[in-house]
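Cross-check.
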Amino acid sequence: MGPPAPQRLEEPSEAKGPADHREPDTSRETPMQTLTVTENFANVIHGLKASHLTDLVIQRSKRMILDTLGVGLLGTSTEVFHKVIQYSKIYRSDASSTVWGHSDFRLPPLYAAFVNGVAVHSMDFDDTWHPATHPSGAVLPALLALSEALPQKQKFSGLDLLLAFNVGIEVQGRLMRFSNEASNVPKRFHPPAVVGTIGSAAATAKLLALDQFKCKAALAVAASYAGAPMANAATQTKPLHIGNAARHGLEAACLASLSLQGNKQILDMESGLGAFYTDYTPRFLPTLQSYSWLLDQQDVAIKRFPAHLGTHWVADAASSLRKHLVESDDSVPISRIKRIVVKVPDVRYVNRPFPNSEHEARHSFQFAACSALLDGSISVQSFSDQNISRPELKELLSKTKLEHPADNKPSFDNLYCEVNVTLQDGKVFSERCDTFYGHWRKPLSTEDLKKKFHSNASSVLSVEATEGIIETVDNLEKVEDCFVLSAFLKGTQSTKVLSKMCLS
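Predicted model, tokenized:
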């Protein structure tokens, strides 16, 4: 006898929603009772068309793309980026793709996706969704690398790019909703290393126009690349999680295009993607006839400074409290402060009382509170060695402690931060933040998003190239050849590539 057939996890009866969560794609004549969740995902990935995209999904995803390109360009200045570039240069290939911000060399598509993905997350400056993951950095570098590597006659339009990008984002969001525990800030593994890898595979499979069977294989192959422990948070290794998700998803789709096979029920099984969750409950996607995108229902958070998302609540609360403390010279009277209490959820890897590096500082509630109290805000420069080692900052850190109220849950959707400062004379000042500026409930304005992009991209590219990217992304659904983006990203001046833009 052979091995037992893999068991499919069914939805609990109370979780069964409207019919659009249960019906298979009617373009396939497979009876519903024999259709697996993995087959359903493959059918939808293959079947989605640009006409399924809504105006809101296009508008939100273009914001995500612009922000991801900006933080990725800024990230090319980091030490971890230079280390992975040095490593990746040993690989050579006839096919090559752009390394963002570099006109002097290129890399094979897999390694271009890898290093550009690392750049995106090198400062923890990229977008964040709920349930918790960084969706864009795992997908966009893979798509742009792939779009350059295929034959020149095979052009991809901006609309092709938008569709594939949104397929990759959507798959991640749906997979995160297969588990209730995924709604909390992660403890054991970094979500982009799991769902991001699958999302990258789905997106690149879409751009390659793989059929349903090869889309299914791409999901299976990608699942065997998935996973990275949270123990590497606040180190130079954490950005590799995003780079590997981009690279491995692209590799999975390429292998599937060659008919490499994997388990055909990879999304259905506890020993498949269910291995990452104790409460894994897979569900069907909506029907193609009336597809509803998660990005239509909920925006992403776009960060104002490069640090763990939880620190943004802390920074806003501390900045508001600062106005009660400042003296005539706009300084905070450190010697008059007796105690600082920061009330946040119990998230262990962001509890770092005395961070010693930029990566630790980006994952420190205490650092965010004390930096915002001292300076009034947090910026890219806040994480320099000079600022981290300031004696006045260390003095404030020594007076700071965390508290974890029972009602403050570790969820990016509903956590809060309260900062209390007690002075030597007994006076107490308090401020609370329930939703910081940049959260999906309080999104950055278009003006502020573009200011962030300008600040990030202009550190690497010319003003002309920076403006060219903004114009291209603004009009992405009309762009006939998305190669123009790669031309700008490597620093080519817009006068040399505007002829390629060919707005339809």
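The beta strands are 97-98, 106-107, 337-343, 400-403, 417-423, 428-433. Residues 1-32 have pLDDT under 50 and may be disordered. Passed to J.P. for a second look.
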